[in-house]
Design goal:
Blueprint (H helix, E strand, L loop, with lengths): L1 H12 L28 H13 L8 H8 L30 H25 L3 E8 L5 H8 L8 E5 L5 H4 L5 H5 L7 E5 L8 H4 L16 H18 L2 E9 L2 H13 L9 H8 L1 H15 L6 E5 L3 H19 L8 H21 L1
Parallel strand pairs: 1-3, 1-4, 2-3, 4-5
Helix pairs in contact: 3-13, 4-13, 5-13
Bound molecules: adenosine monophosphate and magnesium ion.
The site of magnesium ion has 3 residues, from loops.
C-alpha cells in the first residue's frame, strides 16, 4: 500500500494529462468510441515538456490512467465496427496528446519498464499466462511492435510465434490445432504474430484456401460458425488462466502505400517487401470488411479486441504497451510467500551460512 501511494503521488506530480473528449458518445448505433485525431492542446504539451525537464526519471502510469487511455481502443461486444476513412470511431492517425515520437519516448520507456516488472511477478506466481494476439495488414508494424514492447522483459518468460501459410501436416488437423500447440505456459507471455484469426480473414478473402483444409461435408454458415468456435475456445482458455489480449494494428491505406514505397526504395528494406503483399493490397476493401466482422463478432468480455492506431509507429507501440500492461495489472500477480515451515528451514540455513563466514574470518 505504501508503494501504491508513492506510485499514485508520483503520477499526480508529472501526470500524463488526458484531454477531455477522450471518450465521446458513439454516433448512429455505434458504441465503440474513438476520437478522431485532434490538434493537441498547446498548454498540455507545454506542461509535459516542463515535467520532462524537471524529472527525467520515468513516471509510473497508474492503472486508472491506463484504463482511461485505452478505453477508446476497446471494442464492445457486438458493436458495429466501421474501419477506413469514414470511420467515426477508429482513426489510424490518432496519437492521444502526444505530438512527436520524442514526446512519447518517456511514456514508452516507462511502459516497457513496468511490463518487465509485472512479467517477473507473473513468472514467479506461475498461475496465469498472457496470450497477445497481433493482427494487421502488411506493413502495419507488427514486428517492430513486438521488438519494442518486449524489450524490457526477461526473454525466458516470453515466446513469439509467427503464423505463416499452414503446412501440409497442419492442414491434416482441425484449424485451431496449430494455435493450441503454441499457447504460452503458466507464468509466461506468448505472442501470436498473426493467429487463428487468419482462419476468418485471409481464408475468408480467399475462400479457395478452404479446399486445402480437408473439411468434412458441406460447410454451411462457416464464418458464423468459426466465430462461435473461436469464442468458445477463447472462453475455455480464459476460464483456465490464459488472459487473452487482442490487438488489431489499424493502418490506413495511404500509410501502407508510403511504407511499401519505402520498402521498395530502400535496398536494406527490400527483403521486407513481398510481391504477394501488393496483391493483398488490391483486396484492401475485402480485408477491411472481414476485419470489421471479426472485431464485431469476436470481441467478448473475456477476450476483447483493441483497435490500435498504427499510422504512427511510435504511438502503436505505446498503445500496445499500455494494453498489455493493463492486462497484467488486472492479473496483479504476486510473488509467492513461502510457508512457515520452509521459512524456518531457510532461517536455519542462514545461521549455518553466517557461521561459515565467521569461521573463515
Ligand atoms: P507475414 O506475416 O507477412 O510473414 O506473412 C505470413 C503469410 O501467411 C501471410 O500472407 C498470411 O496471410 C499467411 N497466413 C497466415 N495464416 C494463414 C492461414 N491460416 N491460412 C492461409 N494463410 C495464412
Ligand atoms: Mg508480409
Amino acid at each position: 500500500p505504501v508503494e501504491h501511494q508513492r506510485h499514485r503521488a508520483h503520477c499526480r506530480g508529472t501526470r500524463l494529462p488526458h484531454k477531455d473528449g477522450l471518450q465521446r458518445p458513439g454516433a448512429g448505433g455505434v458504441d465503440v468510441l474513438h476520437p478522431r485525431a485532434q490538434a493537441p492542446d498547446p498548454s498540455s504539451v507545454a506542461l509535459r515538456h516542463d515535467a520532462q525537464m524537471e524529472n527525467t526519471a520515468s513516471t509510473p502510469v497508474s492503472h486508472a490512467d491506463l484504463r482511461k487511455r485505452i478505453a477508446p481502443f476497446r471494442v464492445k461486444p457486438r458493436a458495429v465496427v466501421r474501419l477506413g476513412d469514414d470511420s467515426k470511431d477508429f482513426d489510424p492517425g490518432y496519437r492521444d496528446q502526444f505530438v512527436t515520437r520524442a514526446d512519447a519516448g518517456l511514456a514508452l520507456a516507462e511502459g516497457v519498464r513496468q511490463l518487465g516488472e509485472y512479467q517477473a511477478r507473473l513468472a514467479a506466481q506461475s498461475t496465469y499466462a498472457v496470450l497477445v494476439i497481433l493482427q494487421a495488414m502488411d506493413a502495419a508494424g507488427k514486428d517492430g511492435t513486438i521488438k519494442h514492447v518486449l524489450s524490457g522483459v526477461n526473454p525466458q518468460g516470453v515466446t513469439v510465434h509467427p503464423f505463416k501459410v499452414p503446412s501440409l501436416i497442419e492442414l491434416q488437423h482441425d484449424y485451431l490445432w496449430r494455435y493450441q500447440l503454441q499457447l504460452p505456459e503458466r507464468g509466461s507471455i506468448g505472442i501470436f504474430n498473426r493467429s487463428h484469426y487468419e482462419e476468418v480473414l485471409v481464408v475468408r478473402v480467399h475462400p479457395e484456401l478452404l479446399g486445402n483444409e480437408h473439411l468434412p461435408g458441406a460447410q454451411t454458415d462457416i464464418w458464423k460458425r468459426r466465430f462461435r468456435e473461436i469464442n468458445d475456445w477463447e472462453r475455455y482458455l480464459a476460464d483456465n488462466g490464459v488472459r487473452i489480449v487482442k490487438l488489431f494494428l489499424n493502418l490506413s491505406k495511404q500509410e501502407q502505400r508510403r511504407r511499401f514505397l519505402d520498402r521498395i526504395d530502400e535496398p536494406d528494406k527490400n527483403w521486407k517487401f513481398n510481391v504477394a503483399d501488393a496483391l493483398e493490397r488490391e483486396r484492401w476493401d475485402d480485408y477491411q470488411h472481414a476485419y470489421e466482422e471479426v472485431l464485431s463478432a469476436t470481441s467478448t468480455k473475456y477476450a476483447p479486441w483493441h483497435v490500435v492506431p498504427a499510422d504512427h509507429k511510435w504511438f502503436a507501440r505505446l498503445a500496445a504497451s499500455w494494453i498489455i500492461l493493463d492486462a497484467l495489472m488486472d492479473i496483479d500477480p504476486k510473488y509467492p510467500k513461502v510457508d512457515p515451515q520452509t521459512r524456518a528451514k531457510m532461517l536455519e540455513i542462514k545461521e549455518r551460512l553466517l557461521a561459515e563466514g565467521r569461521h573463515r574470518e
